[in-house]
Amino acid sequence: MRTSDRCTPGLRGALLILLLVPLPALASPSYPGVVESELETACPPPCAVCHQDQNGGKGTAIKPVAESMIDQGLEGDDEASLRAALAGLDRDAVDTDGDGISDIAELKAGTDPNTDGQAPICGPQYGCGARVCPSARFDFAAWFVATLALAVAMARRRRRAAR
Ligand SMILES: [Ca+2]
């Protein structure tokens, strides 16, 4: 029974770490591809068209066009709401930056609907593996294995220290 008493804190520690370590915010990684296919754009729009930066993430869709889409019913991780928001922008001819060109027309033309003018959002493409947005996916399995390995190492260390 003494051995299991020594091992238990390591496992408890691992579970505690699992509960206390904040998981990164999950974005809606499919959205750029949905916009590209729905509007037949020249490229999937970069994350920074809607988010505060290229990292994306929940709660960071703060750009004016994102607010316009949220006004049209856009929600996170809901492709149907994205399609409906795009249709709403098109139906209402929303022009977020007020430059006389609708947001949908700007996205189709590959320009930034947040800024007055024709700022391009499609960068150069570099071969088959080129990507515009970094993947915001979180590898839970790798994170879990690393945490478990840390707990096992801590348990072994305690076991050695007890000898
Ligand atoms: Ca515009």
Structure description:
It is built from six helices and no strands. It is mainly α. The chain folds into two domains: about 1-25 and about 140-160; about 30-110, no CATH class. The longest helix is centred in the C-terminal third of the chain and has 23 residues, at about 140-160. It is elongated, with a radius of gyration of 23 Å. The two termini are about 15 Å apart. The relative contact order is 0.18. Calcium ion binds near residues 97, 99, 106 and 113. Calcium ion binds near residues 95, 99, 101, 106 and 113.
Secondary structure topology:
Elements: H1 2-20, H2 31-39, H3 64-71, H4 79-91, H5 103-109, H6 140-162
Helix pairs in contact: 1-6, 2-4, 3-4
Bound molecules: calcium ion.
Calcium ion binds at residues 95, 97, 99, 101, 103, 106, 113.
- Tell me the overall shape: elongated
Note poorly predicted spans. Answer: 1-5, 22-26
Instruction: Give the CA-CA distance, first to last residue.
Output: 16 Å
Q: Total domains, how many?
A: 2
Please state roughly what percent of the residues sit in beta strands, choosing from under 5%, 5-15%, 15-25%, 25-35%, 35-45% or over 45%. Answer: under 5%
* Average predicted confidence as pLDDT: 84
Structural class: mainly alpha
- SS field, number of helical segments: 6
- Report on the biggest sheet: none
- Using the CA coordinates, give the radius of gyration: 23 Å
The count of strands amounts to 0
Name the helicity range. Answer: 40-55%
List bound small molecules: calcium ion
Order of helices and strands: HHHHHH
Key terms for this structure?
binds calcium ion; mainly alpha; disordered N terminus; 2 domains; 6 helices; about 160 residues; about 50% helix
